[in-house]
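Renewal narrative, Specific Aim 1. Our central claim is that a sequence can be written position by position from structural information alone. The example that follows is taken directly from our test logs and has not been curated for this report. It begins with the structure tokens describing the chain, in the order in which they were read.
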């Protein structure tokens, strides 16, 4: 198979070219949006009425799932088949932990540039402050900065990239990471049942989920119509749990060929199916394209927790999800690290990443 990557050949696993901080560009002021950030072919934002409940992602009550409620499990199945995204309420992560996490991320981005640069990504590292997925000097850039940290298992943490001198940061991430992992574990068990296994089936097959947290900062933008906070992409995870500002919109998901804004619900988590689940479910559950928009008035913070299998695990459609007569195998098996390596060698671009493991293109 031809895995051609624009200028990416010279860049190895996790390599991303250094780019300026957008927060700094905004802080210094500018006459017009720099060329590299103007997305000419961006789909126009679709205007949908946010009060239209038809166009809101489903809401799942975690406390019911955790009690083994069959109707809620059916709702989860529907949400993941039809939308690939849902809001999770009553998830059990304490409000105080959510607030502390948001405050910690906010205080990191408030540091002066030199302070943040101490934790800068290195060229061949996916962790740290900067931006990932930049594989060419010509590639359009996103209107955001981020810091990515591996958090679980704890022995995989690389504290070189953690702002340990920032008061409360490590404690906030520790607590948040632990509580969110409990939510992820329960969801994993529910997905396991939905995919025809017992509650522990996925964990037995694939081991415990790993975790990484990507903290995104979207500065304000005087021309939100020209830029993208994050380009359309799907996540490489098993699933992603997103914590976002309660009062700033930004996330949009592709649903039936339209971009639908996801309105934040205070203290809930937005959860989406990742590529690994799409592959394992043999396409039953979709890892949906999503993007982030910016606005003129308020910077936005979002915190995306990715949970994913171990690098050495092979991922592929589960036997229980393949049926030769009506659901033939749609994806080949691939070692997870090879999948992610391929993903990081490309710019974020829609569904290109799952397409490359598809057996037949539709
Ligand atoms: O900021 C958002 O709403 C989306 C973030 C996201 O998609 C990501 O970090 O993968
Ligand atoms: Fe994402």
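The sequence written for that structure reads:
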């Amino acid at each position: 198979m031809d895995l051609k990557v624009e200028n990416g050949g010279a860049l190895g696993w996790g390599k991303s070219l250094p780019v300026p901080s957008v927060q700094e560009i905004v802080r210094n002021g500018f006459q017009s949006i720099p060329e590299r950030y103007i997305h000419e072919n961006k789909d126009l934002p679709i205007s949908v009425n946010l009060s239209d409940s038809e166009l809101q992602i489903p809401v799942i009550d975690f406390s019911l799932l955790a009690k083994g409620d069959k109707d809620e499990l059916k709702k989860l199945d529907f949400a993941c088949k039809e939308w690939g995204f849902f809001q999770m309420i009553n998830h059990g992560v304490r409000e105080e932990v959510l607030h502390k996490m948001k405050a910690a991320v906010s205080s990191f981005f408030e540091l002066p540039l030199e302070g943040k640069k101490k934790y800068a990504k290195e060229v061949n590292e996916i962790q740290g402050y900067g931006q990932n997925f930049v594989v060419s000097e010509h590639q359009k850039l996103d209107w955001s900065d981020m810091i990515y940290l591996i958090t679980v298992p704890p022995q995989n943490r690389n504290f070189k990239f953690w702002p340990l001198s920032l008061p409360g940061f490590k404690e906030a991430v520790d607590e948040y990471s632990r509580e969110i992992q409990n939510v992820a574990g329960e969801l994993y068990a529910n997905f396991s049942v939905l995919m025809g296994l017992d509650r522990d089936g996925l964990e037995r097959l694939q081991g415990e989920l790993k975790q990484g947290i990507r903290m995104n900062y979207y500065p304000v933008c005087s021309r939100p119509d020209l830029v993208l906070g994050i380009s359309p992409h799907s996540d490489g995870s098993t699933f992603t749990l997103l914590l976002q500002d309660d009062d700033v919109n930004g996330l949009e998901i592709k649903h039936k060929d339209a971009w639908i804004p996801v309105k934040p619900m205070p203290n809930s988590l937005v959860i989406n199916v990742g590529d690994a689940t799409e592959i394992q479910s043999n396409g039953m559950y979709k890892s949906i394209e999503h993007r982030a928009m910016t606005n003129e008035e308020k910077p936005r913070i979002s915190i995306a927790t990715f949970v994913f299998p171990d690098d050495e695990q092979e991922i592929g459609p589960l036997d229980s999800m393949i049926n030769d007569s009506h659901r033939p195998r749609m994806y080949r098996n691939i070692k997870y690290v090879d999948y992610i390596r391929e993903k990081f060698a490309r710019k974020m671009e829609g569904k290109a990443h799952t397409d490359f493991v598809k057996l037949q293109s539709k």
